[in-house]
Amino acid sequence: MRAINPPYPAPVSRRRTRLNTLRNRVKLTLPFMLLLASLVLAPDHLGAEITNRIVATVNGDIVTLHELNTSIKRLTGLSIRELRLRDETNFYEVRRAVLDNLINEKITRQEVIKLGIKVAPKAVEEAIEKVKGENNLTQEELLYSLKQEGITLEEYRERIKGEIERFQLVNYEVKSKIVITEEDARDYYQKHTKEYAEAHKVKLARILLKIGNPDDKEEISQVKDLGGEILEGLREGRDFFMMARAYSQGPAAPEGGDLGWIQVSQLEPTLRRRIAELSPGEYTDLDLAPSGFQIIKLIEERKGEIKSFERARDAIYSRLFKEKVEKRYTTWLKGLREESFIKVIL
Fold first, then answer.
1. Residues 6 or more apart from 172 whose CB is under 8 A from it?
2. Measured distance CA(192)–CA(209) in Å, rounded
3. How many Cβ atoms sit within 10 Å of the Cβ of residue 7?
4. Radius of gyration, CA atoms only, the chain
5. CA–CA separation, 276 and 274 (whole Å)
6. Strands of the 54-58 sheet, one edge to the other
């Protein structure tokens, strides 16, 4: 699955706790259970204080240690403990880079509020549709990609909303200074033609016959016999989709076994080879499946082709625009940071 390219520029961002000593005098006559309770409860209290302490202030806004640790986990996939144990030097570099990113987000968010920038839900949905279009993704493929990244669709919507806000903010500041020419776009296309290769996809339908007990030879024989009868019916001209509705035990049986469009690269190697032998309208023999036997029909095929410049033009203009905006964003953000009161307490 190719990486999802957001339609708006993300901000460019790179890169022990000291506890107050508590002096409490304990009288020799202090009851034992009260002393024990104080010893048991103290660690939890201190732990909460550490987790929630402030690590930076940005023009009055605060960044907490919890916020920083959560961002590190989201960006690296590792907990603070895991990251530190893996490479302590790198841990401090990553932590500072993530903190810088959070500071940048606070500054840009403050500017968004200052300018009264609002993003309607409809704009977010349109942006997501644009992402799908530029990356040749179906809704199912988008959800699969998000799942691989460990985020929900709602979290992705919030991320896109933030990107649009920042885009509008930067657009407000630098739009008049950015120009993309036809020559720029064609030159980019010539240098990055392979990026516009469409994935090889096939539309499949399946009749799945399940086996409840793989050690039951009699059941296997009966399922094979049923599969043979279905194949014979297909060869006599019976409709594949009607047969799937009548006999298939797969989840797509109500839709006539229609599995929809699938990227060939995502198919299991053996099945990929079997599909490669078919022409649209043809189907396999009765083949083994993980849970029984199956017959697969190739309904339609879209072989990977290179998009023409005309078809890729909008995506190219969008990408070039984002690249130029990001460069100007870096310069603009640097100026804002110099004008801001930032205090790091880490």
1. 115, 117
2. 46
3. 21
4. 29
5. 5
6. 61-64, 54-58, 342-344
CA 258 centroid distance within chain: 26
Burial 157-173 (b: 16+ CB within 10 A, else e): eeebbbbbbbbbbbbeb
Listed in order, the ranges of the chain carrying CATH 1.10.4030.10 are 32-176+312-344
* CATH code for residues 32-176+312-344: 1.10.4030.10
Structure tokens at 36: 């024990």
Map residue 54 onto helix, strand or coil: strand
Residue 51 has a pLDDT of: 58
What 3-state DSSP class applies to 258?
strand
| Alpha helix positions (H), 261-308 | 269-276
**Amino acid letter for position 239:** D
DSSP 121-182: HHHHHHHHHHHHHHTT--HHHHHHHHHHHT--HHHHHHHHHHHHHHHHHHHHHHGGG----H
- Which tokens sit at 73? 């986990």
- CATH of the domain spanning 201-302, picked from 2.60.120.260, 3.30.420.40, 3.40.50.12500, 3.10.50.40: 3.10.50.40
Q: Which part of the chain has CATH 3.10.50.40? A: 201-302
Choose among 160, 152, 151, 155: nearest CA to 125.
160
Task: Write out the two tokens for 126.
Answer: 């349109």
In angstroms, the CA 14 to CA 329 distance is: 14
Q: Give per-10-residue mean pLDDT for the chain (346 aa).
A: 45 32 30 33 41 88 91 87 89 93 91 89 92 87 86 90 85 77 92 84 94 90 93 94 93 92 89 92 91 94 85 89 82 90 91
Q: Which of 188, 169, 52 is nearest to 119 (CA)?
A: 169
